[in-house]
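Regression test case RT-17, inverse folding.

Input:
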């Protein structure tokens, strides 16, 4: 008989899956233990609490989005080129890390107040990449004058955050076409 030993990374990944599927409050340590083939009490050799697991999953989401923004901001070219890179990178983070992204987008509000403040700060920093690109585009004349970068960034992020709820890789639109349609739609609103 071969037994597999769960690592902390296995526990965190399983927690991310369950939080994404059932929500934070809909997931118990017993559920997580069952998912991993462990007794609930055995989980505590890997983590201190369910909240700790949520913190790790949400931090990973923040890290992925931040890395994506840094890469997009380094793109040479115009503000529309960087906005395209921001949108494409966001789509990649969501679709390549669906459980983590869903948990970050939907369950971060369940964090304790101190951790939630840190996540809000990371989210604000991420959103600032969009605001910066939009402000640069307005200054360059590539985006509509009078556009409010803060409001526009919230609109854009609301649109691209929603793909985790409806997009299916085996559906009628592939990822490349999805990004193209998103960029075209957003771009038309910015002209």
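Golden output:
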């Amino acid at each position: 008989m071969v037994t597999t030993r769960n690592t902390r990374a296995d526990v965190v990944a399983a927690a991310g899956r369950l939080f994404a599927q059932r929500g934070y409050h809909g997931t118990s340590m017993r559920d997580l233990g069952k998912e991993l083939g462990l007794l609930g009490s055995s989980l505590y050799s890997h983590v201190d609490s369910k909240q700790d697991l949520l913190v790790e999953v949400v931090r990973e989401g923040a890290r992925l989005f931040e890395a994506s923004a840094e890469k997009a901001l380094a793109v040479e070219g115009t503000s529309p080129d960087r906005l395209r890179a921001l949108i494409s990178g966001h789509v990649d983070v969501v679709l390549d890390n669906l459980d983590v992204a869903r948990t970050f987008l939907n369950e971060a509000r369940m964090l304790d107040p101190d951790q939630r403040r840190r996540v809000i700060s990371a989210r604000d920093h991420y959103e600032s990449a969009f605001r910066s690109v939009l402000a640069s585009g307005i200054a360059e004349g590539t985006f509509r004058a009078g556009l409010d970068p803060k409001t526009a960034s919230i609109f854009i992020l609301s649109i691209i955050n929603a793909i985790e709820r409806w997009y299916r890789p085996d559906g009628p639109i592939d990822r490349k076409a999805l990004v193209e349609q998103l960029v075209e739609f957003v771009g038309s609103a910015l002209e």
